[in-house]
Every structure is written in C-alpha cells, then in structure tokens.
Design brief:
Blueprint: H1 7-28, H2 30-36, H3 51-75, H4 78-100, H5 109-134, H6 145-148, H7 151-154
Helix pairs in contact: 1-2, 1-3, 1-5, 4-5
Length: 156
C-alpha cells in the first residue's frame, strides 16, 4: 500500500484505517461495539429485535468505507477528499440531532464529533496542500510542489 503524499491524504488514511478496524470489530465482536457507543446489551434479545442484523450491516459498511478511504489516499484521489468533507459534515449534523433528540445515547455524540473533526481536518489539509503547491513547495519541503498536488486540484 502506498503512503499518502499530502496532508489531506493522511487525514483520509487515518479515517480509513479507523473505519476499517471499527467495522471489523463490529463484525467480530458486536457487543464491544455496542458498549463503545453507549448502548445497553440485554441478556436476551426479544423476538423482532434486529439489533444484530443492523450492526452487521453498519459494520460491513464501515469496513467497506475504510477500504474506499484507503484507496483514495493511496491514489491521491482529491475530488473524493473534497466530496467527503461535505458529507462528513452532513453526517455530523444527523448524528448530533440523533443525540439531541434522544434517539441515540449521549456517548453516540463521539461518532458525530469524529465525523465533524475529520471533515474539518480534511478541509484544512486540502487548503494546506493547495497553499504549499501554489508556493512551489513539495511534500518534503524540497521545492517540488507540482509533484505533490496536481495543478488542477491546487486551484480548488
């Protein structure tokens, strides 16, 4: 796997690894995932309780998302980086509303905060990379700015 070549790429890689690991945790040990999120775990599930089914689906989605983010970081797919900033802010908003309206427990706000902070970190990384590229500074400070960020992306 290729290491990220930009600040924004590193934010994507970190999120990708965490999404992949937490998705795998939810698939392998769902009770741990539920405890981390602040959900109670009954000794016995009632008929019609599809918590396990939903957790499997969301864990698999998290695992897949981790793969997508790592692929984007490895290929420096900057349009995807920009896309995720907006949708992670939407996710932050939806999850925050779920906590505030008591649909989700308070600890679930950690997920919302992670999404919001991740969006801001990626946005700052994109801004920083564009600024360095415009100044002609490469990722190692060597003056090879055009190699780190494609010219078409440095404008955005």
């Amino acid at each position: 796997m290729r290491l990220p070549r930009s600040s924004a790429g590193w934010t994507m890689a970190v999120f990708g690894v965490l999404a992949l690991v937490l998705g795998a945790l939810g698939l392998i040990w769902p009770e741990a995932q539920l405890r981390m999120l602040g959900f109670t775990i009954p000794a016995e599930r009632a008929p019609g309780d599809y918590t396990g089914t939903f957790l499997t689906a969301s864990s698999m989605a998290s695992f897949n998302m981790g793969v997508y983010y790592l692929l984007a970081a490895a290929t420096e797919w900057r349009p995807f980086y920009r896309f995720t900033v907006w949708f992670r802010l939407v996710t932050f908003t939806v999850f925050s509303i779920a906590v505030l309206s008591e649909v989700a427990p308070g600890r679930f706000f950690g997920v919302a905060a992670w999404e919001g902070l991740g969006a801001v970190a990626t946005a700052v990384g994109l801004w920083w990379d564009a600024r360095r590229s415009a100044a002609g500074v490469g990722p190692d400070g060597d003056g090879a700015g055009s190699a780190s960020v494609p010219a078409a992306d440095s404008v955005h």
